[in-house]
Design goal:
homotrimer, Udp-n-acetylmuramoylalanyl-d-glutamate--2,6- Diaminopimelate Ligase, Chain: A, domain 1, UDP N-Acetylglucosamine Acyltransferase, domain 1, 27% strand
Chain lengths: 346, 346, 346
């Protein structure tokens, strides 16, 4: 599978600077590259790391000209590098279309065209699945759910009853959509589960990470807007309404009935209180704890979270607090001495 | 499935104010209601939102009298609304009692009466399952486990060896009970796993959320007391003893050998240190980090967590710190000037 | 299965102090011990709790001499106690070697000797599995993965394509290795998933907790070094390189392309920013948020995390801030009075 560097330049339509005959045996990022690999440097600062890298050649954009190593110049470094990686490590999964005889599909379920259902997957009563859907082993789709076209459900994904999934959605292994919300009424010292009659609705082009959980609404939907991307181990509570094109990083937790606008970004481990609203394009810093609604176009961080300017002032002041404490004690002494001198003088 | 508003009033035994003939085609909360839906307003402040709501009618308690929209008055709004929602979206899952031929049940396992076991579920050697238990697809019950009556195990739940589950327990999809504890002894620079001979014991009426993990004890049980409710993605470490009727919200983490009393509440993302004790009825605020034992009947929050009064004072002082810093510098200047004047005068 | 205390002393090669004929019916830690049990006290402070314990006897190390209860002295208390527990609660799982006819193994997969594959497990095309591997129900190994010798994969573990697992690795239920990284490029207001061509590499003797997720690299590996132990619900992002013999506690989150040295310890709920480096033997306190690289041999905690000394000073100063605020106001008044008096005098 080795390629000469000239062949690689041809493969990606790039401009070669160096010996076309150099044999290339793999492709890896600078940190991981071995002798014989081609690597990539998508910005100048990475090009500076090439001196310590064992790669035989490097892929670069037009504005990067590396020193002392053969290079191939292309306009889109990442798309080109992906093409090279795929040459060396081609995708090996070739499951033909069709429903495995070892899958468990209800007779009342309806499947579209060009669908793949792997062994041990379960599809319940009255489920409808669109065209071009891939359902990996161990996926559980409970009764009444609706799956759009060109959806991929990775192994062991669970969709509870009546889940609605849009088109081109990707859900990673072990994610759970539609479990009961965490809503209880305490009667005579016992916590009684509230109504759990709702479901989950996922918009088109949403991607959901491994182990993420999205609870059903109380009476109606918990919904995720079109184009929103959700990382692994995110928790979204019952009745939440998440807007379009959000980016929710890993281990974010959003409590029940909270809403977000469009293009909201939450960094890792952010926590959002129940029943608050996060405005369009708000950015919430890693690990922040949001206790009140956040206006559109704002940047919040900290615990409790506040607007970034306020938080920066607080944290700067806190950093200098131990020093200020010393100065304060010195000032107390100075004032005491001054007062004494004044009294003596008086 | 449409109902006239009068029929709805009859269905829930309510008092109608408005035209009994209005056709109702669905039920949804105010935020989600469409034309033709009935909605609910369980308190006065929600009634004020009805003006902007497209619902055709509203369900209210006796102390709420909405303006300009037909309404039905009932004593228990939520129970009645649930009944209406169920009329419009009836439960579709009708699995008959019985063990699927495509389930994998050990010949030494014993199952009670009126049990449902879906295809692909696994039940190991010497497992005992009570009456009225529902075991969804992909559930794995390892050898020696004991399941009480009327338990529901949602898809892909995993119970390791010798797990003990009480009556009326609900465990949501992907939860894992009984994995090894995170206890290591470091010998010659290598971490060696300690004994993992214990198991998990779950009391009656406990509910456990999706993706939650509860590790086995070292030699004996990790236990969850009767009536305790645990949300999604909660982590409970080895040897913990959780009391009765606790509410543990999403993404809480409790380290090994910690204990809690009864009626403890932990909000989302709380972290509890190992080997500490949380007293009866303690309330721990969202995201707090608890490093020491907490007395009964206290409210703690913050990181590190302290009693609420102390934390409020700290946070208030911190909020004013940037201002105080300015004032402090001004005071330093003032004292310096005063000292100079005094020296000049002396 | 009862044993006389003398038989127990023989079982563990210990020195008996007390009546050899006392019947022992179980083994439990002090907190859980019932009448007739033997318990253990591995340090003096535990021996003091024996007065309130119902155990009939206690296992102790040579430097602990309990009062008023029969005891057995041994050199390694935990190994000996484990042996006793195993007598009373023997391991019941006796799956014979072999591949279940109800497992789904690709004809192109290659399995080693003495392998156990339970029903409903899935093994994809071109997968290679070493000797002595145990694959529990519901495990999904996708195409091209390589599993070393003596590996245990607990129920419902998911390995995406091309995952590489070393020898003696243990992966707990529901863990997911190789899902897509959370890397997007935003084009015309839509988030477009970046290349997802990499995979996950796990070193020898690594242990991975339940529900943990480790994402694949962009072009190459996300890697976990030899001997590292990872607790439940940990999240490791794409392209991370975790060193050897790390201990990563529950609910830790490590963002993409971060690296760690050897013997790093992260307590529960720690968050690590993307693209930073954690030095050898660094210790990161529970729940800290690390925003910058951390030097070797340092101890960091807090949010944002700093070196421990700096953080202790900050937190101490913050604790005294409410008091300091009062004193500051008093000092302001005092200076104002002093200035007034001085002016009056002048």
């Amino acid at each position: 599978m080795d390629l000469a560097l000239g062949e690689i330049a041809n493969l990606v339509g790039g401009q070669l600077s160096g010996d076309a005959g150099i044999p290339i045996s793999g492709a890896a990022i600078i940190r991981d590259a071995n002798v014989g690999d081609i690597t990539l440097a998508d910005k100048l600062q990475l090009a500076n790391q090439l001196a310590d890298c064992r790669a035989a050649a490097v892929l670069v954009p037009p504005d990067v000209t590396p020193d002392g190593v053969p290079f191939v110049t292309v306009t889109n470094v990442h798309a080109s590098f992906a093409k090279i990686v795929q040459h060396f490590r081609p995708h090996t999964c070739n499951q033909p279309y069709g429903v495995s005889a070892a899958a468990h599909v209800s007779p009342t379920a309806q499947l579209g065209r060009e669908v793949v259902v792997y062994p041990t997957a379960s599809i319940g009563d009255d489920v409808r699945v669109g065209d071009g859907v891939i359902i990996y082993p161990g996926v559980r789709i409970l009764a009444g759910s609706r799956i759009g076209d060109n959806v991929t459900l990775f192994p062991n994904v669970v969709l509870y009853e009546n889940t609605v999934i849009g088109n081109r959605v990707i859900i990673h292994a072990g994610a759970v959509l539609g479990a009961h919300g965490f809503g209880y009424e305490t009667v005579d010292g016992r916590h009684k589960l509230s109504a759990q009659l709702g479901y989950v609705v996922i918009g088109d082009d949403v991607e959901i990470g491994a182990g993420t959980t999205i609870d059903r609404g109380t009476y109606g939907p918990t919904s995720i807007g079109e184009g929103t991307k959700i990382d692994n181990q995110v928790m979204i509570g019952h009745n939440c309404r998440i807007g379009r094109h959000n980016l929710l990083c890993s281990q974010v937790g959003i409590a029940g009935s909270a809403t977000t606008g469009d293009y909201v970004v939450m960094a890792g481990q952010v926590g959002i209180r129940d029943h608050i609203d996060i405005g369009d394009r708000a950015i919430l810093g890693a690990k922040c704890g949001v206790m009140n609604s956040v206006p559109a176009d704002s940047v919040y961080f900290g615990y409790p979270a506040t607007a970034d300017r306020e938080q920066l002032l607080k944290q700067a002041a806190l950093s200098k607090l131990p020093e200020m404490r010393k100065q304060f004690k010195a000032l107390q002494r100075q004032v005491a001495e001054l007062a004494e001198k004044f009294n003596d003088a008086a």
